[in-house]
Amino acid sequence: MKLLEERMLKDGNVLGKDILKVDSFLTHQVDFKLMKEIGKVLAEKYADRGITKVVTIEASGIAPAIYVAEELDVPMIFAKKHKNITMTEDILTAQVYSFTKQVSSTVSISAKFLTSKDRVLIIDDFLANGQAAKGLVDIISQAGAEVVGIGIVIEKSFQAGRQLLEDEGIEVTSLARIKNFNDGKLNFMEADA
Ligand code: G4P
Q1: Which of 17, 118, 121, 133 is the most exposed place for a label (fewest CB within 10 A)?
Q2: Distance 140 CA to ligand 1 centre (A)
Q3: If residue 151 lies in a helix (H) or strand (E), which one and from where to where?
Q4: Which Pfam family is an annotated match for this chain, by its short name (predicted)?
């Protein structure tokens, strides 16, 4: 997605050898106009696939996911990283290991929001090692629902996430694919949409 790549080049900051800071439009401050465009492109790709729910994980997946859900006219559910006192009913959970933070955490979705009839599109802001996405796939499978695909805003193609998901037979659609950060500069490979 050209508009996204241009924005990453303009406002993204490379930190170290493998982190891209995009807090001015995606992960902290959110550019809703860009999110709306992202929503349109991902929704168009999955428009005829019978999607009934969009699922993401808090926090930064929520912004793009809500616009995809709006375009597809289906509910958006975000997995929670912390159980709160109102989650008294059955919950579906998965363990997610973060290589970045080197901690494992439990993510959860209330069982009442997913059924075996659901066809789910997963959306997330970053795909790195794919652990968050894998946790969501796990939860959706526990509900007996089907994962139709995964839409990603920024994929770091030099990390293992895409391969991990494709090995499970899941279609990945990434709007920007970072090949590497050689010399602190962003190099892209061809995106999926
Ligand atoms: P994984 O889910 O693909 O395995 O990712 P990993 O454990 O490596 O990353 C953990 C967190 O760091 C995730 O957010 C992920 O979105 C984010 N992340 C990974 N690479 C980058 C990057 O290059 N830039 C930025 N800005 N973020 C990155 P999180 O902490 O779980 O969630 P959130 O609350 O910030 O959304």
Answers
A1: 17
A2: 20
A3: strand 146-156
A4: Pribosyltran
Quick count: other Cβ atoms within 10 Å of Cβ 23? 13
Average pLDDT over residues 73-82: 96
pLDDT tens column, 151-183: 999 999 999 999 999 999 999 999 999 999 988
- Is-cis flag, bond preceding 132, omega within 30? no
Specify the pTM.
Answer: 0.96
Atom 34 in ligand 1: residue holding the nearest Cα: 59
Residue nearest to atom 24 of ligand 1 (CA): 20
Q: What is the helix (H) or strand (E) element at residue 165, kind and residue range? A: helix 161-167
Which atom of ligand 1 is nearest the CA belonging to 127? 3
Residue 59: pLDDT over 90: yes
CA-based nearest residue to 12, from 102, 38, 20? 20
d(CA 5, CA 3): 6
H or E element that contains 6: helix 2-11
The answer to whether 134 and 141 are in contact (CB under 8 A) is no
Question: Which residues are near ligand 1 (CB < 6 Å)?
Answer: 19-22, 27, 59-60, 98-100, 125-132, 156, 161
